[in-house]
Amino acid sequence: MNPEVDIPYPPRSWLQNNIKSLYIACLMVFVPLWMLGSWYIFTNQAQTNLQQQIKSDLSLFADSLDSELEKYRFVPKMLIMDATLASTLANKNLLHYRNIHDYLIHIRTVTTADEVFLLDINGSTLASTEHANQGIDYAHTPYFQAARTGVSGGFFTLGVNAGIRGYYFSEPIFDTKTDDVLGVIVVKVNMSRLERGWLNKRTPMMMTDEYGVVIASSVPSWLFTSRQRLEESAKQAIRSTSKYPTTSFPELQINLIKQRDNAQIISLPRPDYNRVLEVSLPLPELSWQLYGHGDLKTLDFAIQRNTALSILVFILTVSLAYVVLQRRLQFNETLGRREVNQARLQQAKETLEVRVAKRTQDLQDRNDQLKQAQTELIHSAKLATLGQMATSVTHEINQPLTAIQTSADNAEQWLERENYSRVANNISSIKKLAQKMAAITLHLKTFGRKTDNSTSWVSLDEAVNNAVELVALRCKQEQVELAIDCHHKMQEVQVLADLVRLEQVLINLLTNALDAMLDGSDKKLQINCKIEDNGLEQQLSEGSVTSQKWQHNICLQVIDTGTGIDPEHLVQLFDPFFTTKGTGVGLGLGLSISYSIIEAMGGTLSAANNPQGGAQFCLRLPCKEPARGA
Ligand code: ADP
């Protein structure tokens, strides 16, 4: 994986960006559609239910009408079985007619019929339960004419005199011998009796005859109106049968609003019936038609309530679907982003690892370079010190060299005189002087050599002596009083150091002190040392202390009576290239290098001003005392 390439988040899908608008658009478009659809379905359903209910009411009424009529249809059939009527008609016995009159009244009372009467063969009333109707001629009536031909008759009519709607059942009375029709017995039923059941019906009803004239209605004002314009033939038939006293009926104002299957929505001439569902049922036997009505306004509330509920459910469902879908999309998006975040994290980790490795490598390289430079610098500084020392060393060597010259001349002269003991003495002193020179040059050789950084227990006394040796001549020349106070202690002590480098540090400290006292009058250079306890060191092994020893430091002080150090300079004294000496005289590296040398040996180097004047440097190093053992 390329660590620099930024991993993008997965792009948001079209659905994610537009789900809210989609939801609103869906509501705006589908809610009205849903409302229309629901309204249509609920209206249709409610109207179908109402239609069913009206139809069952109509069937119920038709059944009850049929059974009611059937009840009266049997009355004349029963009466003709009575032989008295036939014999009375055959004999035309008036006395018997009176008895028959009483008999008919009895029959009317028992059957609750409206009127029962007996007609002769010419249609004239021989006997009737209504006295007033005696002698009336019914020859033109369809029910007489049917019975006259020997069959049962039935006919609805509106009474001309009483104005009562009645249904007439007629039966022919046969001569028992000849089977000729002798007369007709008629039973009349009042139609209002049949309507009684309608009044408490929830469905307003009407019944029309074969011409469309309303002959029964739960709304009295609709009676004897016609549902359609009467044909001339119909009027003719009405006139000829005297069915109704008139042939002109007011037309019932029915406006068709909508046609349904087996029903229709209409408005009827009543303020509260301006939108009703009308269902019809034919009564084929009577050639009548039954109509039932249901007020559609009563359905409105239920339709509106159901439609509102349905819209509510729709909105809730769509909203729920929206919420679920939105959550799902959000979840997917979060999941996608989390995966990308993880990949980014992984990428960042890898990048970091690469960078850390690179930095570590760089640091390592720099460190190596620094170490190398430091070593070079120390070596250069050492060589610089050597240069400084060259003069005094030359002087130091010149002295024994001159002495060797003199001793050699003397030895030559004593040899000529053959004084061999004196020759031997001179040779011996030459040898000693040569050894001293060898020691000086050997020391210089050692000092100039590059060393590794390893430390070992070395003699502090030796280091101090070697350093002092190198500055001794300068001290003498500059009339500096050099005092080493603790020679005996230094001889006992061994320090953990690199001897050559320790010498280098000491020479640097001594040279600086001499520089500081260059223009002074009372020049004293003092070397002190004291041993400090550094605390009890415990060595641990498997959780328990197995051995203890005291840790010691030696503090070697180099004190001068020079210019001292400006307090402002104390903090930067050990900084590289800090110098107060003129250009070309000081580099400002001596103390900085000395500091790092001592630090590398596990010690410290510090500077302070001497209260009596001048400066004092303290060099601390771990030490061991052979007398107390380590
Ligand atoms: P250099 O000797 O090349 O200047 P050093 O690092 O050895 O560099 O010393 C830095 C400075 O510290 C000197 O320039 C001097 O000002 C100050 N210094 C060092 N030793 C002494 C001393 N004994 N007395 C006063 N000043 C000192």
Features:
630 residues, alpha+beta, Beta-Lactamase, Heat Shock Protein 90, 6-stranded antiparallel beta sheet, 50% helix, binds adenosine-5'-diphosphate
Detailed description of the structure:
The structure is a single chain. With 630 residues, the chain is of the alpha+beta class. Among the domains are: 80-194, 2-Layer Sandwich (Beta-Lactamase); 199-296, PAS domain (Beta-Lactamase); 451-623, 2-Layer Sandwich (Heat Shock Protein 90). Helix content is 50%, strand content 21%. The protein has helices at 14-79, 83-91, 94-111, 142-148, 191-195, 232-241, 297-416, 420-448, 460-477, 487-492, 499-516, 590-600, and strands spanning 115-120, 125-128, 153-158, 165-174, 181-190, 205-208, 214-217, 255-260, 263-267, 276-283, 288-295, 456-459, 481-484, 494-497, 524-541, 544-560, 604-609, 615-624. Strands 12, 13, 14, 15, 16, 17 and 18 form a 7-stranded mixed β-sheet that branches. Strands 7-6-11-10-9-8 form a 6-stranded antiparallel β-sheet. A hairpin with a 6-residue loop joins strand 3 and strand 4. Helix 1 (14-79) runs antiparallel to helix 7 and helix 11 (499-516) packs antiparallel against helix 12. The protein is rod-shaped. The two termini are 59 Å apart. Residues 508, 512-513, 516, 560, 562-565, 573, 578-581, 586-592, 615 line the site of adenosine-5'-diphosphate.
